[in-house]
Amino acid sequence: MKNIILTGDRPTGRLHLGHYVGSLKRRVELQNSGLYNDIYIEIADAQALTDNFDNLDKVRENVIEVALDYLACGIDPKKTTIFIQSGVPELTELTFYFMNLVTLSRLQRNPTIKDEIKLRNFEKSIPVGFLTYPVSQAADITLFDANTIPVGDDQLPMIEQTREIVRSFNNLYGETLVLPNAVLPESKYAQRLPGLDGKAKMSKSLGNCIYLSDEPEVIEKKIMSMFTDPNHLKVEDPGEVENNPVFIYLEAFATDEHFKKYLPEYQNLDELKAHYKRGGLGDVKIKRFLNNVIQEELEPIRARRKEYEKKIPEVYKILEDGTKKASLVGKNKIEEVKRAMRINYFEDKDLINKHTEKYN
Ligand code: TRP
Prior knowledge:
2 domains, Rossmann fold, binds tryptophan, three-stranded parallel beta sheet, about 55% helix, elongated, mainly alpha
């Protein structure tokens, strides 16, 4: 069996540290592992339009931002096909056939969709395109025979929905589609990075993000004003580490090497946490350490982004080439699907012969 990765992002803004630690970093590791036959990353513009159909510029302007962020993180277009969803019409075709296999009530039960409907005030009147985007996401995954889907945990309901569609399709029409598996980040701290304000999620709409393209001074300012334990008022006070985003970020990023380099009084994070819990450790000191760690992580990413920013036409060409390649793969798969669904009239000589005999 081939090992094929597919994943993607909506082009609705620049990518941030939550995307990086929850998914991008892993993608680059998987890309460089040499264990995968094919890797696809989709810029899901059509999906982004399902709740931005009245805001075309937002999508149009952010395709390049997301592409730059991918390349900055080390996605290598020689190893990974980066493509734009709307440029692969076979995805729409497959979505239409999948719609027969999904019920309205099943879509309405999808927890991610439920959350998003609330968030977008769609409760009274849900656009059909929006409600059905999980079906289109199932097409994204299956059109490329992907078995490995590196995502954050908010995407698990989408993968589950895809698996149901695959089972149902294969049962009805014969083994045609590959059953995908989600791959989450190893560390639970990386699966969902809280916002700078301590809210459950780093999110553009909440304005609590560190962007991969932020300048060093901006990052420092954001880190130094991060939310910590609100009861840790004086340095002597014992502090809480569990719901403290500064410590959660350290869990996600800090290594023992970082301690050696920037905070040698402590061997590792456990020692630092113990001191904080005891009391006598100030927030500023930890934030300075976190700043060093994050700056070190983002510095090469920013530098690579700046290089690609100098050659935008080349980046668009990467997207165009990737989209052409994805479409070619999609054409083959859609033919296989149509054969399985017996809507391949013109290539089926038996069908033509049978009907010839019927009338002669
Ligand atoms: N829904 C994903 C998000 O909002 C983006 C996405 C679209 C995706 N198609 C995908 C992710 C296929 C994984 C696989 O981030």
